[in-house]
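To: structure subgroup
Subject: Chain for Friday's discussion

All,

I'm putting the inputs and outputs inline so they're searchable in the archive.
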Amino acid sequence: MTVYVRSLETAVPKTMLIQTEARDVFAAQPGLSRLGSRLVSTCFNSAAIDTRFTAVEEFTRNYPSDDPQSFDPSIGLLLNPGTKVRNHIFAREATKLFVEAARSAVDACQELDALDITHLVTVSCTGFFNPGPDYKIVRELGLNPAVQRYHLGFMGCYAAFPALRAAKLFCEADPDAVVLVVCAELCSLHVRASNDPDTIMGSALFANGAAAAIVTARSGSEKKALLQLDHFETVLTPVGEDSMAWNIGDHGFEMVLGNYVPHIIDDHIVGALKPLLARDPELEALPYPSIRHWAIHPGGRSILDKVQARLGLTDEQLVPARETLRNYGNMSSATVLFVLKHILEQAPEEGDERICSMAFGPGLTVETALFTKLRQAPGAVFSGHMYDSLATEVPVP
């Protein structure tokens, strides 16, 4: 049975962060050591990011607040609220992104009604609340209260793939199933001033965003489908368990992102791809650059550099990942769906357009997937110009 993605939509908060301005704010924080100051400049300047988006509205010069919790613009001070305060913001602001992305994905399938959705899978690793985002989506979109709901929490940057894989399994088990998958992450909730290299790197890379997809195998769905879900695989590298992690601290979640991660990926990416490509002998026999599209999770510039060099991919094949990183930063689980959307919005080519996709996360876990692009998605290709209608406030950090 063939399972399809019928729609793929994205959403970001309205507050844009300019990378150079964010760098200057972090570099000016009191208590920063000389080494910490150099690390801030290095990490922010080398991240290959121009803009990011945040749901923390206080991260703007003009946001009025008599009792700032995250940033005090009057003195340029990054504050350090406790995890409870940060998670309260998550419950409020993540709900907005979950609902916005979900509604867009449903609206994009004109022949489907919200009541047609049989399964709902939500994904996030940047906060918790209950009743959770799955419940909020059911209420706000008017889904059937009996819809089967599943939440994948705290998995990290690769979690969109387990969500899509689960959706595929639901559809294979029930040919009439319609699955709504929604990823939303508010990574910038957890930034703080620090001399710790991992914390500085996280502050330079991470951002907020959401993406949602409708997945189904219903008869006739192939006529308007965007993607065909072909195969998924999971590989744990033999090293790296302590090099990438995501822990809960007293003042937000704490990122462990060792500088050896790109080297681990460099050493093990070929092995991680083997079980996936073995699912398709025709692709397995091809050189990597002969696979037309590569949707790589842009965990950071150095990770993309290592993947491109190891697999011998062209600059053009890395454009979707690099432009997503440059325009949006790393939005954890939602990011690879932004990359896929970028590929879908490229002009169609002749013949099958196969997509090899991968994402990396704690463990070190490598999730891989094969897709087939079926037609050009509606809408314009991503560009910096779209921000004119998205950003309504001037950023500080």
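Points worth raising on Friday:
Confidence is low (pLDDT under 50) at residues 376-397.
Residues 227 and 373 are 5 Å apart (CA to CA).

D.
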